[in-house]
Specification:
The complex is a heterodimer of chains A (394) and B (296). Helix content of chain A is 66%, strand content 6%. Chain A is mainly alpha-helical.
Amino acid sequence: MAATEAFLIPVIGVILALTLTYAYLWIGSNIEKFEGQETLAESSSRFAWNLLVPTLLVLVFVALRPLEKTFIASLTDQRFAAGAGAEVNFVGLDNYAELLGVRWDIIQCTTDETGACALNEDGATVFPRARDALDETYRDLRYREISTWLTLGGSKLIFSARDTDFIGSIGNTLTFTVVSVTIELILGIFIAMVINSKFTGRGLMRAAMLVPWAIPTVVSAKLWTVILRDNSSGVLNAGINLMQRTLGLPEESVAWLARPETQILAMIAIDVWKTTPFMALILLAGLQTIPSDIYEAADVDGANRITQFLRLTLPLLRPTIAVALVFRTLDAVRVFDVFQVVLAQKQYSMATYNYYTLTNSQELGYASAVGVVIFVIILLFTVAYVRILGVSAE
Amino acid sequence: MTTVTATQSPTSGNQQSGQGWRIARRVGFWFIIVLILFYTLFPFYWAFNTSLKNENEVFATAYLFSQNPSLRNYESVFQNERFVRGLFNSTLVAGGSTILALGVGSFAAYALGRLQFRGRLLMLYAVLAMTMFPQISILSGLFSIVRDLGLFGSLGSLVVTYPLITLPFTVWTLTTFFKGLPSELEQAALVDGATGFQTFYMILLPLTAPALVTTGLLSFISAWNEYLFALTFTTINPSAQTVPVAIALFSGQVQRQDPIAEVMAASVIVTIPLIVLVLYFQRRIVEGLTAGAVKG
């Protein structure tokens, strides 16, 4: 296809869609003139639904229909590279069993001749490999050990999963979500309260707060990989080194993007940088709806700053905090851009894991099951929020 | 007389404290302001600074100012066909889906904001649920649909799918604006014999023009910054990639391992128009964002 033709498709598509919508609405609203029998309420209701049809069509087409397809595909072993004639089998919940298969086992130590636990040179108890110690199903279903939960005398409690990458991605995502949203909320309230006081240049400051929000996430991810470089060519390490030099400590750089713990830390740092100012602006809007005379009254009553903050500001800000929390949490749970750009396949978030199962191994069925699990997790978050915080649409 | 404090509270409590204390507070306050601004703006400055460096400087110790700044990286970014095409594609896709979202969304917002009908609250909830809808969950389903339509690897795939991101938000924000208009307008139109569509199209829509500009801008930004769909649906066709994808997959003019300085130049180019727009419309944007969040 020639390049110019390819560009025309979306343009024509948009024009066509809008023209059809307008024609449909025009006809709809003029028909009622000829019929003339309806009551005002009836015709207004019909008109309202006519107006909603295009939106409903779009939502059904880009949200509900794909969701349905995802659900159905998640029950099959479909692969998307397969040709048209390829066989697709219904596999029931196999994909889910594979994804979510986890177990806890107690492993006994390796014993020496005397029947006591064997020790290695460091004096630590020796345990057999999990796959040797555990039963057939452990091997047949290909469980792999993720971590040791508890070691007590001659036995230890281990946690294993069939898809360790996915279970790991859930852990990563939840850690990322809880930590970054908490930091964003606390920093956000602090910054909002600072900007809420009157000072020259306040408008300018408010504007500056929008800059990180406007920067595309891909760009901020790239930018932070430069800032976080593992030697003094990364400006963060250069700063740390400068501080160490001043304090007379040995200079040491941190390889932020090399180790699993600091990788997640870096993801959190990037997200906090990008969204805190935005959070602050939302909270600022909430702060500005609080009338100032209640603070004057509190002053008269002799309440100090901290009491005022805890007893007045926080409760009055609660609805705003609730909304900000809901939106930020749901955003964080589906985090994709930062993880994909910075970590690629070194560590996964739930979303990047879904993306890679879809594009790399081309297992459409399995990837769909991942999508469904993420959907359920997000749904749980939403329901919990609506219940706990009483968020309403009106 | 005012003392700068971190809360809205009046100053009566501080009046007995001495002059020195007040100066210390002032200094402390401005220190915090500078700290916040530094935190917010420094990373972007760093992108700009890096974009002026040459390849050697990038891998040497980080200096706050480039030793011999040059615009060479910008030149080579603009010679990169993929990037330039990405700019063009992004403009087209973000523009197209914004027009679509505003065109379709303003109808729905009018219905939800001005008209009374059975099922109104249900629709309102449905739209709110859509703004929280996880894109990632439907990636594989949407993928099948895009492929069945023969749009896989084309710009069309993005124009068709982006309303998922832009439309619910547009409807939600515009609904709040529509609600705020006085109801006498419709009554007058009704008396004059205007149909519902005429009332909407000729009377109310022009009044919401400022809201349309704000919402359109927000929707344009979110479409311009979108990455997941763009990456997934255009993998097989580099000439349909948008700017975020082009930046993520950037390879320099000459085949180099890691053309950081060029990537930063590209990043600055992509971001500056957004920052200019955002700063120009900042008051409206904050209002638009909080109309959905705070009042919602």
